[in-house]
Specification:
By secondary structure, this protein is α/β, with parallel strands linked by helices. The protein is built from seven helices and 14 strands. It has one domain: Vaccinia Virus protein VP39 (Rossmann fold, 3-Layer(aba) Sandwich). It has a seven-stranded mixed beta sheet. A three-stranded antiparallel beta sheet has the order 12-14-13. A two-stranded antiparallel ribbon has the order 1-2.
Length: 289
């Protein structure tokens, strides 16, 4: 339980996160304010990411320290972190979560943002938290055990969801969307994902992160799929079934270096792109759908 002073810190943190994210949706800040972040962190001593790379330990496990807009290490040897609250607040605002939505959270980690999603969908909605790593998924199951509207599934994120969803939220960098993320969006459904290409050199102390990265929003409309750039975003890169070949990585790297990703308006999916080909039958383009 929070003391009155600690609760004031938590509420201030939630307001700061929403303000930094640039969202005016009051539901975003309210969801961050009621989810206890320390419940989803690794066991103390906590480590936070340093601006110059690597991690540094916090000297105490005072739970108030969990309520700052920094990255906490979950698996430092793999570069897996808790995620920047303000970045996630911005991406979740773009996901446009509604009460009663069914949402697939791909790459749930220890479940912090699954818990935020569960607040946003309410008791009549449902969140499917997909995590491939069994250690992380075990933490997630324990931390979310009191949330009846969340199901934790240990699986490769490239294979989920397996039914139509109102929204899909991806929390690792990919060089292309997985087929279920596009095919299982219902009409009006939204997909938010970090598009990125891995660094060529893996640091010895962490996992492989994106060297170029951008968060995108894709929506299924009556005339096809629309895409919108959300902002710069660097996540740890995907493993498992989402690993792609070097030719696709080179094509996407060249596209990032050319710039103008902020002007994309639609994805080309399962048709042969005229220009801008990234991989097999998909690309991003500047035309309206």
């Amino acid at each position: 339980m929070f003391t009155a002073d600690e609760l004031a810190v938590v509420r201030a943190y939630a307001r700061q996160v929403a303000a930094t994210a640039g969202t005016t949706n009051p539901r975003i800040g309210a969801a961050f304010a009621v989810v206890p972040r320390e419940k989803f962190l690794a066991a103390p001593p906590w480590q936070i990411a340093s601006l110059g790379g690597g991690y540094r330990p916090l000297l105490t496990a005072d739970l108030v320290l969990a309520y700052q807009d920094v990255l906490f290490a979950l698996q430092p040897d793999r570069g897996v972190n808790s995620g920047s609250p303000s970045l996630h607040a911005r991406m979740l605002a773009e996901l446009d979560v509604q009460i009663s939505d069914r949402i697939a959270h791909i790459g749930a980690g220890t479940g912090h943002y699954s818990a935020v999603l569960s607040e946003l969908v309410g008791a009549t909605g449902h969140v499917y938290a997909i995590e491939m790593d069994r250690d992380l998924a075990g933490h997630t199951r324990s931390a979310l055990a009191d949330r009846a509207n969340v199901s934790v599934i240990i699986a490769d994120g490239s294979q989920w969801p397996q039914q139509e969803m109102d929204a899909i939220y991806v929390n690792f960098a990919v060089a292309r969307p997985a087929e279920p993320w596009i095919e299982n969006l219902r009409p009006g459904g939204r997909l938010v994902l970090p598009l990125g290409v891995p660094r060529q050199i893996r640091p010895s102390s962490s996992g492989r992160h994106a060297s170029h990265g951008a968060a995108l929003r894709i929506e299924r409309g009556a005339r096809g799929f629309a895409a919108r750039w959300i902002g710069t975003a660097y996540f740890v890169c995907a493993n498992g079934g989402l690993t792609i070949d070097e030719n696709e990585i080179e094509a996407l790297t060249a596209a990032f270096k050319r710039g103008d990703i902020e002007f994309v308006k639609s994805p080309i999916w399962k048709t042969e792109p005229r220009i801008g080909r990234f991989g097999d039958q998909w690309a991003l383009c500047y035309d309206e759908p």
